[in-house]
């Protein structure tokens, strides 16, 4: 039951920090909004078919796998293609 607090804090932390990503703030917000609306629609469609427990568990596992997969970009990224900002 206490994990709901953590999930909400991470959700609001990610959604409020969209403006800190590189690129145009309006494009970042539009992409974030599109995926959020798509996720809400997918939840509405799958909730009656799959069930609340399976949908919640699956989304938590998918989110965890996505977070863990970001380590591959750090390990296997080509350093010559990275953009290095100076004096920022």
Automatic annotation (TrEMBL):
Organism superkingdom: Eukaryota
Name of the protein described by the UniProt record: Uncharacterized protein
InterPro entries for this protein: MFS_trans_sf
Protein's organism: Dreissena polymorpha
Classification lineage: Eukaryota, Metazoa, Spiralia, Lophotrochozoa, Mollusca
Transmembrane segments: 25-47, 59-77
Keywords, comma-separated and alphabetical: Membrane, Transmembrane, Transmembrane helix
